[in-house]
Write a structure and sequence with these properties.
- With 424 residues, this protein is an all-alpha fold.
- The protein contains 16 helices and no strands.
């Protein structure tokens, strides 16, 4: 009985505090964003406090069917409808105050029936959303609505379709289930999409170095091509060279994250060499950035949404093909064939291949899989080294070419020499 009373007392106190603070926040919101509007205002800090109190009391009095609580909600809605009619006559159509009032009205049931963090989270969200009016409006004006449509489709496929897919291997020759295939697509797309959103909407033109830094999180190869083209159109600038190199530094970190998601054992083995080469690339990149001059940059040429369904299905197809090809090569040509394959694949998109190594089951030792991942990453650096002089010209791209070539050769060497091996 004491525990129940204690819980109810705490819930009631939290309700009063949160309701009062929201009332103050609403007043501050109106002062900052609606100074010139008429004085008519639905509720003060006291009104919000009483609203939260009533919601809590009605829940305590009738906790089973919430009849009193629902009646109180209907009363609040009626009062706001009368107030809203007057607001419409004044040319104001927003129902934000009503929605905030309803959220405050839920504090009572939330604190009584759910953990306290739930009501605290609602309070924080109310304050955050009220204060984020300008950033939200600015973002809504900048965002391409087509991208949200694409994101909605991907969420549907991830949250609805993914759990329904069977987790049984397709065939004995292809030891992979539809569930794992699509899970790989979802994970890679989510990582790429995070970098894409940060680049396009948070830091669209914040300097060429930041462009390479964030661009490398979703496509270091695309970032290299765009930055090399930018270098070709300007006088030699170490800043652009640093941006190209830092994209590859981020690529190493990205591969570590992917490895840990799908195969922690392999990830632990490749993490040390990848961290080493990433650190080296970061040091080189920052040294060039200090010697260069600031240049505005963007990734508009590669701002293709990585969550487009066509891209996702192509990745899924490539993933399945890589699984089949890797399985065939390891069965017929062993570890030597796998190394040759990994070197060749490095001159294409390495994500499907590396995922096939992380998720498949092959007739080679784990150490050979480690080597293949390193070789693929290294040969991909060789490709980017060629891109830096092909698109940027020898004069503007030679420094990036030299460092990317050395990073690629070093990564491949680590794969062949076996320095990545750790005790498992």
């Amino acid at each position: 009985m004491i525990d129940n009373l204690s819980h109810e007392a705490i819930a009631f106190a939290l309700t009063l505090v949160f309701s009062f603070l929201v009332g103050l926040e609403v007043r501050s919101y109106r002062v900052h964003f609606h100074k010139d509007e008429p004085k008519t205002f639905f509720g003060s800090a006291r009104t919000f406090t009483f609203t939260g109190m009533l919601g809590c009391l009605f829940t305590l009095i009738e906790p089973h069917y919430f009849s009193l609580y629902i009646t109180g909600m209907a009363g609040l809605t009626l009062l706001f409808a009368l107030f809203y009619r007057r607001r419409l006559a004044q040319g104001h159509q927003s129902i934000l105050l009503y929605l905030v009032l309803l959220a405050v009205y839920t504090f009572g049931p939330l604190t009584l029936t759910y953990p306290y963090w739930m009501s605290a989270l609602v309070f924080v969200l109310i304050v955050f959303i009220l204060n984020a009016k300008k950033p939200i409006l600015h973002l809504s004006e900048k965002v391409d609505t087509y991208e949200f449509e694409t994101l909605g489709k991907m969420v549907l496929l991830s949250a609805v379709i993914l759990p329904l897919l069977p987790d049984k291997n397709i065939t004995a020759y292809l030891p992979l289930s539809p569930y794992k295939i699509w899970l790989a697509v979802v994970v890679i797309s989510a990582i790429s999409y995070g970098g894409y959103l940060v680049q396009r909407y948070l830091f669209p033109t914040k300097g060429i170095f930041l462009t390479g830094l964030i661009g490398g999180s979703y496509s270091s190869t695309a970032a290299t091509v765009v930055l090399a083209r930018r270098a070709a159109s300007e006088a030699p600038n170490p800043m652009i060279t640093g941006a190209i190199i830092v994209a590859t530094a981020v690529m190493y970190l990205r591969l570590i994250v992917i490895a840990f998601v799908f195969n922690a054992t392999v990830a632990q083995a490749v993490a040390w060499p990848f961290l080493l080469f990433s650190a080296i690339a970061f040091v080189i990149a920052f040294a060039y950035s200090k010697a260069g001059r600031r240049v505005e940059g963007s990734m508009d040429e590669v701002n293709k949404n990585p969550l487009e369904l066509g891209t996702a299905f192509v990745f899924a197809a490539l993933f399945v093909i890589m699984i089949a090809v890797t399985h065939f090569v390891t069965q017929h040509y062993g570890s030597g064939g796998l190394r040759v394959l990994s070197f060749m694949v490095g001159f294409t998109d390495i994500d499907p291949f590396i995922l096939s190594l992380l998720t498949g089951k092959y007739s080679v030792e784990l150490s050979q899989l480690y080597a293949a991942i390193l070789i693929a990453a290294g040969s991909n650096n060789l490709l980017k080294a060629l891109y830096s002089v092909w698109f940027g010209g020898w004069k503007n791209g030679v420094h990036a070419f030299a460092w990317l070539f050395l990073l690629g050769a070093g990564t491949i060497g680590a794969g062949f020499m076996g320095i990545w091996r750790i005790s498992l």
